[in-house]
Task: structure prediction
Amino acid sequence: MASLSNGGLNADVIVIGGGPGGSTASTMLARKGLRVLLLERDRFPRDHVGESLLPASIPVLGELGVLPAIQEAGFLPKWGATMVWGRESAPWSWYFKETNRNYPHSYQVWRPTFDHLLLENSRANGVTVCEGCHVVGVLFEDGKATGVQYSTEDASCLIARADFIVDASGQSGLLGRQLRLRRWDPYFRNLAVYGYFTGARRLLPPDETNIFIESYPHGWFWNIPLHTGWASVGAVVDSHAAQDEVRRRGLHGFLVDQIAQAPNITHMLRESDMVSGPFIVKDWSYASEQVVGDGYILVGDAACFVDPLFSSGVHLALMSGVMAAAYVTSALKDTSMREAAGQVYRELYYKEYGHFREMARLFYSSNRTSDSYFWEARRILEADDLSPRHAFIQAVAGQPPRGYERVVLDRGEAPGEYLASVRTVERERAGRRGRLEASKLRSDGILPSLHGVVPILAPGVGVERKPVIADGEFEWGHVLTTPGRPEGIPCSGLVAKIVSLIDGRTPASDILTALRGDGQQGGGAQLDQSVMATLQILYVDGTIEDLQGL
Result:
């Protein structure tokens, strides 16, 4: 695959880091026929925290072809979460199946094994994987990334060249630090101290493999059961307040002190022993002001990290790895698409990151079991930079349901304006659905039923021509833009055409006639049914604000 150059290797793409983001991007790029060199500082398997996966990651793992190996590894299924959070001091549970029928569970993974499986999958897909290679800097020529400088275990200093650099270096953030791209989040100023325990008690069935989260005065704990018989247990606390105490008591003394203040965690660890750790993780919760540049792209934790509350780290790494591979493939194939596809990558990444950030902020602000500096500092004030309604819609509307949304509202004590916002959104949607079900649009004659019904788009709705991901690459397509999703939602040509024909004056029957004349989907009954279904969905969703004459 590669040839020696200054003692190093050449490739089409160099990927820095072999974690979930780097291995995913590498595998997807290699499948497109590109020569991929992955440089990993450590030797796998290596230790890493972050064992609890989300169901949203399962389709990506399936696409990578590693699900059978993950299932064979014996990882525990994760059906949901059990928490002490919100108004109540007693534990309560929620389950993925309540909002995700296709993927009702994820896994509690042992990261050394999980990450190793992903890395070996990259190797099996043709990626040149070099472990024990520490990248110390990215090389630039005239502002374009052209290669990397790295050292090996025998202290050799080498240079490798490539057409594109993918930075998947994790929280060390090689390019983020080199180019000073990282911006710290002032809201999540936390750190975690964690260890692994044997002999820990589990929750009672059916929650015995759930992640357990317990809020307490100084922060919150996680307890993740693992198939090894160990439990990953960590305390998330305020970074500034905790560092002096950590220095004074040491990591072990600090963690023991925190455990003693969380009654449920104390009970679960009463007969346990710490067999690994404790460890500390700090300097998290940041976003890079730029994730795509000339000849480079940032993936996973190298780009952004929110907070461990919703186990979003691996999901963001896998998702961004897939998108980064699509971008690099397209950028190398068609340089005219680089700028537009790069902008789409930014929008999609920041949108997903923003969803987890807003939900975490809302979740922190909804916890009312403790009155302390930690919780008061993390409650959302009415004078926030976004209106509560806008913030809620940004956090929830249009996003795939993960189960957290209803938990925040049902179990927490969220700010009043947030509650009012979601109730308003739900009432509006239910009202539109009821009006539609009682209307003449339910009649069998589609064209007559559309006569005199004039669709009116909600403010800010439109259609744009933008790059969309298809078959592992970006290609030109259409997206439906709304105030809640300004980056756009990919839509079919038919949906784009329907929306473009809605001007607030033209009856839906005339829109259907125009589409028939254009030969959309060959016309006939199939087109009629598609147009009817599209109008109904867009109306219930609020994209169509009104159907006058309904």
In short: The first strand starts at residue 4 and ends at 5. The chain has 17 helices and 26 strands. The chain has four domains: 4-73+109-185+285-333, 190-281, 356-435, 439-548.
